């Protein structure tokens, strides 16, 4: 093989790896199956919370959403649902969408079909048993996926969700900073990623997000946006 041919092969290999990496790490990539990363381009915003339920933050967030008449979505970790079943049930009873976020918050792109299938199945059963709803939506931890995730989500008939923007509230930059980050990134049809729990620690502190939420909702409404239920974007 000539030097030119070797160079071409290397370039093609690098491009292939780059494509696979994009598919694995980009939460809205369609390389590994359909994904919903935003809603219609109208002045609407969709609030979503990952990694709960959390014994401290989730009740405060649920109370705020009820008080301000907002319907959101919670992508829950199965092990935490079993730890705090009443919170999963409360979220579902309040009309919020309860989705599957795996059983142990594992990074799915590192695993094969067996582990991925077990993660989704265990979380599905936890939501079904304790929240008393059949989950219809899935979001991968960190948005990381591989081809086997598509097979597992298809088994349950899930819609797969990404997000339009997150604000790194999990880094706990302060409630006012979380609020500011949301305000500056608002755009039509945005699916906003927030966290009511820590996927790796059931006692993790997400009270800054809870404290920021009333201001976030006020800012969204003051900017002329409606907060719509994520369930409106379900296709199945």
Describe the structure concisely.
The chain has 236 residues and is an alpha/beta fold. The protein is 44% helix and 13% strand. The strands form two sheets. Strands 1, 2, 3, 6, 7 and 8 form a six-stranded parallel beta sheet that branches. Strands 4-5 form a two-stranded parallel sheet.
Explain what the structure shows.
It is built from 8 helices and 8 strands; from the N terminus they run αβαβααβαβαββαβαβ. The protein has helices at 3-25, 57-67, 78-83, 85-93, 113-131, 147-156, 175-185, 207-222, and strands at residues 44-52, 73-76, 97-100, 137-138, 159-160, 165-166, 190-195, 226-227. It is globular and about 45 Å long.
Question: Which strand-content bin applies to the residues?
Answer: 5-15%
Low-pLDDT residue spans:
5-16
Helix-strand pattern, N to C? HEHEHHEHEHEEHEHE
Counting DSSP E segments of at least 2 residues, the number of strands comes to 8
Give the CA-CA distance, first to last residue: 51 Å
- Describe the biggest sheet? 6 strands, parallel
